[in-house]
Amino acid sequence: MSKKKNQHYVPQFYLRNFSKDRKSLNLFNISNNKSIIGDSIRNQCSDDYFYGKNGIIENTFTNIEKISGELITKMILKKYIPKLKSQDHTILQLFIVTLYSRTKYKYNEFNEILNKTGKSTLKLHPEIDEKLLSEVELKSEFPLQYPLLNAFSSYQLIQDLKIHLFVNKSNISFLTSDHPVVHYNKWTENIENFGTIGLASKGLLIFLPLSPEILVLLYDSSIYRIGLTKEFISNIEKDEDVENINLLQWLSSNDNIYYYNADDSPKIIIDSGKYIPMRNSEKIIIQERGDSQDGKLIGFHSQKLKMKLNVSIINLSIQAKRIIENDRVLKVRNPLLLKTVREFRKKVDEGLYKITEWNEFINDIAG
Hints:
alpha+beta, 4-stranded antiparallel β-sheet
């Protein structure tokens, strides 16, 4: 049994970057509609045995956090950006993709997927009582199993995304939350009924605030122009730009918003009144095609956030604007990379490589 009973799904080292004393955090709890000043970081984003009692997953994340914590600190203090395909770049990819997949939000999201798809399938059986089915909830004891396996075997899909740092020079601090990594696709904002924020999606943007002053953005450079040409760091001076970025946290969090300055509490309370009504009540959209006689194809994708991303230094390229919306649906950003990752996953399943041997696999196929 794991000795670590209190298991954090957002690392404490990360949360300390939003704390003045490195011990406590200011937060707004959405469920209780309440602002709390100075709650212990130890109590945040954690549950007893969240990853189970055998300690395997918890120990894996402990090792990831050790190396990624040093990198994140370097990025904040020195405004350091890892070079593409370097060891630091690999660490950053792994940290971001696993952090996105390990939270209470993803836990709830995947149980919602299981419940909705399970009920859609059971309804096809002629003897199922739909009224009775509506009164039960289908869920898994450990719904994170699939998101985590997918994260560890697919994090390489974002290695082609460019990296940009935003330095906050406005009057408003960056917020974070209990689900701090946010996927967004400005290029497909007007497209409904299709998922467009997967790791391989064309037009993907990945936001992660690192501190009240620093945010890292991973982006598809074939679609977006960020800041000035050939610059990798941009100052954000407009309050409205930071407000729009913070809105991503309000709409994507599970239950807690974290903020640096206690004096910001009145503003946070006012913002909660504006932004909480914009949150999706459900995380997943289920789509069914076909009929009960011939069978149904059941699919799902994440709900789109009820917002438009309006940040003055994030713009579509001229070429991206020319592509009509119908041609933006279900587009893969890098087909060759996707094919290579799938081949690697197959080799892992066959026992020919370990999940950690991506670089060895690439060297082997390169000859």
